Amino acid sequence: MRHLTTFAFLALLAHGHAQTEVRTSSFSFAVGVQPTFSVVFRNADAPTVAAWYKDQLKDISAGVVSKKELMAIGTRLPEVSTDTMRVYVKVDQPKKSPDVTLHVAFKVAGGFVGPDSETRQVEGCRAWMYQQAVMLKKMLAQRELDAGTKQQARLEDELAMLVRENERAQKSIEKTQQNITDGEKEKADTDGELGNMLTRLDSKKQDVANAPSEENTKQLQALMKEQEKLQRKSEKLARDITSGTRKIEDLRFDIKKNLVDQDAKSKAIDAQKIVVESLREKLATVN
């Protein structure tokens, strides 16, 4: 479904949304060409159709054999006959065709039910075929609706995640900007202290030069350590400010991309809602 545009999907959906028609024809089985009742399932697959009818026949038959074709033994269909019967089932899906044609032959005591059989038998087979086909179509339509609804929910979750990511990025920008402002203020204060420290160092160096003593030397060394500490702090603050500025630039780029992604996701959700509504309508009008 994700690989189809909304228009293409709806066109495909419309093609598959047709009233169930049970046709009488003939088809080749292991027991030869026999009269059949057939139904076409649009946009279906042979294994699913075959599995459905196998399950349905199991409930009303003494046994079901599945080889090249499906054969039910001792099948009870009171609307067709008071006796049990055999039912032969074949599904036909030409290569690359999206449609499956189901062929079913009913063998009662007098032979296979066909156009020349008793009205009760013909109409009973037709009614059973119609009932089962509609039930299968509803199951397939419900499956499509569930998948479409799940896809819509996934898209909505992804949009919500994008919104949360955007909000986190906005808050991160605010926090980083505040850290930069605080860092700039602290750096200015540190640089001011560093300037005063350099003045004190020059004065202390002059004292050591004019009056060398152990005390003056210790004081000079202490001032030099303090100056180095302030210098490292100033340099770290400068790095943090630069790093924060780059982080804000990256976050703004991410937000710009996020908004583009949000717009695309919103459009995808709107398109998916149309698909889901069409699938819901399809399920409600299966007949």
Biggest pleated sheet: 7 strands, antiparallel
Q: What's the helix count?
A: 4
The chain-level structural class is alpha+beta
Low-confidence stretches: 7-12
Structure description:
This protein is α+β, with helices and mostly antiparallel strands and 287 residues long. Helices cover 65% and strands 16% of the residues. It is built from 4 helices and 7 strands. Strands 1, 2, 3, 4, 5, 6 and 7 form a 7-stranded antiparallel sheet that branches. A hairpin with a 7-residue loop joins strand 5 (85-92) and strand 6 (100-108). Helix 1 packs parallel to helix 4 (214-284) and helix 3 runs antiparallel to helix 4 (214-284). The protein is rod-shaped, with a radius of gyration of 41 Å. The chain starts with 5 loop residues before the first helix and ends with a helix. The model is unreliable at 7-12 (pLDDT under 50).
Topology readout:
Layout (H helix, E strand, L loop, with lengths): L5 H11 L6 E7 L2 E10 L4 H13 L4 E4 L3 E6 L9 E8 L7 E9 L2 E2 L6 H92 L3 H71 L3
Antiparallel strand pairs: 1-2, 2-6, 3-4, 4-5, 5-6, 6-7
Helix pairs in contact: 1-4, 3-4
Short recap of the structure:
With 287 residues, this protein is of the alpha+beta class. Helix content is 65%, strand content 16%.
